[in-house]
Amino acid sequence: MADAVAAEESAHSIPALLARNVQRFGGLPAYREKEFGIWQSWTWAEAAEEIRAMALGFLSLGVERGDYIAIIGRNRPAHYWAMVAAQMCGAIPVPLYQDAVAEEMAYVLENCGARFVICGDQEQVDKVVEVEDRIHHIQHVMYTDKRGMRKYDHSRMNALEDVQSEGRAGHYRYEEELSKRIAELTYDSTCVMLYTSGTTGKPKGVVLSNRNIIETAKNSVAFDRLTHNEEVLAYLPMAWVGDFIFSIGQAMWAGFTVNCPESPATMMTDLREIGPSYFFAPPRVFEGQLTNVMIRMEDAGRFKKKLFDHYMAVARKVGPNILDGKPVSFGQRLSYLLGNIFIYGPLKNTLGFSNIRVGYTAGEAIGPEIFDFYRSLGINLKQLYGQTEASVFITQQPDGQVRSDTVGVPSPGVEVKIGDNGEVFYRSPGTFVEYYKNPESTASTKDAEGWVATGDAGFFEEGSGHLRIIDRAKDVGKMADGRLFAPKYVENKLKFYPNILEAVVFGAGRDRCTAFINIDLTAVGNWAERNNIAYASYQELAGHPRVYAMIKSHIDEVNASVAQDPMLSGCQIHRFLILHKELDADDGEMTRTRKVRRNIVESKYADLIAALYDGRDSVYTETEVTYEDGRKGKITATLTLADAQVAPEQRMAAE
Question: Which residues lie below 8 Å from residue 92, measured CB to CB, with a gap of 6+?
């Protein structure tokens, strides 16, 4: 027992936690990866050996203390191992978004001064080669997948497994140095540098220490009683703080198994095969899964559809109460049990959610209807509120206190307060060290006492002590008549409908609200096929009169719902248009985590916004787009502008 306590107290770095896990869970699975349709597994002892060999290989390449090692690729054990191996050498891992275009990648590589880059495959290597003429500090490129790499110049390039082989071969030369560097690591050593998504400007490098990651992991693992028996699926971008805290921080602290899918295309199949007990996803993943469910049910026979609708009505009524342990009548419990046999159980199995004990969503607000749908199935889905600068966790929802309209109570060890202007502030052991090479932004975000400005507007509910987030503080405003404007609130309600992929609401400083809509091509295309509507492109389908009628019916329903909220009833949508293209990260309209860059959208489509407010029925527009190969092009369209039905406001009725 004394040895266990000592190991716990001395675990002040990720490599130290790895060594502890080898002692405790050496023969248990630490990582799995699916490749060529087959799951491969590594125990903690085997993973530690692979990581150490990689670290020795890094030393043989000349990795120095304080070097930055960029990692670009999909979720693979080797890439997680590279992050830990970098730390062992006293270097700092910097994961990048694998779908970033070369220009975005070049900015991060230049900003952090990376001397070494690890690429997942040929595609990522090509991006690095493309920008190397401008970035002269890159000394060595490593790659995980050897396919297509044979004819490249290998004078400064190696396969990652060959670097490991070099480390194993030269271990007598480097063992002493590696052990020395590992021993030098402290709680205040840098653990990782993660770049913000850059919603409002250039991404910033967020420096997180071992203290930030380990303390946050320890507290959050205790909060949800996570153990080494959990199974998680690592499929979110490795550059996102959510993936790092779940797949590195919590995995290392609790000792659970991290499973890496074969590819994004096989993610849903791999999810079903693993059946994770602990699952994390941003709202867009849950929205996408719900869309697929609804599409399938629209294609189902009449009896099956009727059965689904009946038991989902039962689930919405009693499912959350059963999940929270609240009293439910025998008859309702029996109906729910039958629903579980016929509907909920098979549906959860199809989604891969049969074994989930704890599920989380975060990143942005999730629509209440979407959230309640999963809770009604008996899935313990909860919301957390966090950000990169907090090592994720600011607030969490305790079991039995889960609601769709709050983000819970402060996480263990976190203090939260509301500023005079309604902005949310926090401080915690997870609070970031600094923005890299950006003392001005650090000082404007974190004050001398450690309080961090989140940029979000919110308030604590009286009685429950739960935090409610209204919107981004910069997005919350007033309409021309002084009523509150909170666009995200309305956008999330709209995105509950499977036919609506994205929505952007405007209205700050104006007399009424308007909206851009992106249709979901899969859902609306399926609907068009069932209704014998022919179309040749996204643009043609988006402009179809019957599609407009369908979207208008959704907006009318949302307006009726928004009208019931006295505080936000002024946010009803008066006019809308369906965009002729999907908002795209490659065009700068969204971040890589699919958050809308409002300022760019407002600037780029100023002509369309003006048309929504000046009463026109249609507007001609030309839009520059970026193709997959990086080429620029232009698309033209004449868009229809339509009116929506505005419901009587609850506030006005009360007055």
Answer: 66, 67, 68, 69, 86, 190, 192, 193
